[in-house]
Amino acid sequence: MKRHARTLLLLLGLLVAACASAGSRGKANALEKVQYAYSAALRWGDIRGAWMLQDPTWRNTHPLSDFDLERYKQLQITSYQVMDSSGGDVDEAVRTVEIGLANRNTMAARTMTYREIWHYDAAGKTWWVTSGLPDFWNGQ
Prior knowledge:
By secondary structure, the protein is α+β, with helices and mostly antiparallel strands. The protein is built from four helices and four strands. The chain has a single domain (24-129), classed as Nuclear Transport Factor 2, Chain: A (Roll). It is 44% helix and 31% strand. The chain starts with a helix and ends in an 11-residue tail after the last strand.
C-alpha cells in the first residue's frame, strides 16, 4: 500500500510540474506571436497596429496625436534585427532590436537601437509593450 501511495505521489508531482511547464511554454509561445506581430506592424509602417500592442495604461497616459502619426509616416523601416532577447521574469521580457530606417523626404538612412519591455497581463492573458513606440527622433 505504501508503495502505491509513493507512486501516486510521484505521479501527482510529475503532473503538477508538467502543467506548470506547459503554462510557461504557452506564455512563451504567446510572447513570440505578439512580438512577431509587433515587429511586423513596425516593419510595414502600421503605427496604429503597433500602438494597439502598447499597454493600455501606457496608451492612456501617452496619447498618440495626429502630429505623431504624420511624423511616423515620414519614415520607412528598412530592417528590424533582434539583437538580444531575455525573459528574466515569467511575466516580463526584454528584447533589444536594431532598427534601420530611412526618411522618405530626404532619403537619409540610419540605424538605431530600441529596447522593448514586455509585460504579461494575467487577467487579459496577453503580453503588452510597456516601453512605448520607438522614438526615432531622439533615439533610445
